[in-house]
Write a structure and sequence with these properties.
- It is a single chain.
- With 500 residues, this protein is α+β, with helices and mostly antiparallel strands.
- It has a domain of 64 residues: Dna Ligase, domain 1.
- Helix content is 31%, strand content 22%.
- The strands form six sheets. It has a five-stranded mixed beta sheet. A four-stranded antiparallel beta sheet has the order 5-4-19-20.
- It holds the Pfam family CP_ATPgrasp_2.
Amino acid sequence: MVNTRAFDEIWGTGGPDAPRTEFAALSRWIHDTPSADLERRLQSAEATFRQLGITFAVYGEKEASERIIPFDLVPRIFLPDEWRSLSEGLIQRVEAINAFLNDIYGKREILKAGIIPPELIFRNPQFRTEVAGIRPPHQVWAHICGIDLIRTGPDEFFVLEDNARTPSGVSYMLENREAMLRLCPELFREFRVAAVDGYPDMLHGTMRSVAPAGREKDPLCVVLTPGHYNSAYYEHSYLADAMGIELVEPADLLVDDDIVYMRTIGGYVRVDVIYRRVDDDFLDPLVFRPDSMLGVPGIMAAYRAGNVTLMNAPGNGIADDKAIYSYMPEIVRFYTGKDAKLPNVETYRCREPDAYQYVLDHMHELVVKLVDGSGGYGMLVGPASTKAEVAEFRKAVEAQPERYIAQPTLALSTVPTFTDSGIAPRHVDFRPFVLTGKGKPQVVSGGLTRVALKEGSLVVNSSQGGGTKDSFVLLDDPGTPTRSQRQSGGGRSQQQQQGG
């Protein structure tokens, strides 16, 4: 059964009248701000998001396929010590992910050691034999990672899944902060909050740092988008604009003699680094799907020749696989020699007979997921499902057990949220972003908090009725300026700040 006594990150276990000491000021703000005022501010935020075109796709619906993601004004807050601990765990995990990808496309030492069953790699549709033997600059495969975390107590954080292909949501992180600065400036006077607006500079710096050999001095970087019909197109255009680089579609690029060029009104210009938001299958019709109209013919030949860097690297989707996720504690230990600082959620692999039988016997108690599912699709939350839904999902698991994993139904932490019936706790998860280029990975001092707006729901995905919140990371360095201080001219420059 779902534990209904979830830990609330602001109110703790004492409720609104006895909040956690560090958040007494936020609790007072929640109590003292009239509901009508909160509603007015929310409407203003929604109008801005709609004007900007910040939408997401709802797949499988005939109408209203593009929607505004609901936004909540009550921020989620991380204390400095919490954030330091999380950052250490995130860096360790991302370093292990990159080592794992470099290994399975190279010497495959982890398979020789018997840590992972070989069939989980070689039979995985996300394992791309086409990139075996390639060595990207600095052996970085997952340049941009979004590691989904959940919390169950004051010091209890778990990794829910890894996103190493094309993790989205960073534009919501940035726009949510802009909305909060405009609509709730009093909270930034009350709390010293790390800035997130330096993310585009961090991303551009990461791109430049992984330029191909011989092109490091002044590499030309671009963002490759499938086009304006893509559900994340706003994010693609936002990031390109914020970095001051070109947003290109596949038709804007061509490959000649294993070199990628961009068409411009002044002629062809060589491209060195591509932040690609086109999936592997559609990236190059000469290598992957021949019917792809979104790819750039020959781009994989240029990549293999070392003449262009692709971020994230093709083939790294296998690190997203939920069956591989279940081995991440062993993967971290194998490549770092240390136990994982951020633990996994306990996971049952249905491909294993004992686990399979346990899942069938306890399906009504578990969360069961497709190993390659995403967006809240291909998933069963047992305690929130009807007997008919459980029975139907059971048939799918019985037909292909190797495609499923299951996890206990944890009591995700809650954060006070403005609902139709007033302020009430709602379950949240968290996606921080980690950038890896030349040198040590960098953790952005913030992230995307997703909130399940339906009472009692544990599903936070926007496609399943979830919304977002701003994520405050508190500073404990008196010399580090907040965003509002920088805008008034105080403190250090943007490049010198913690977290941008």
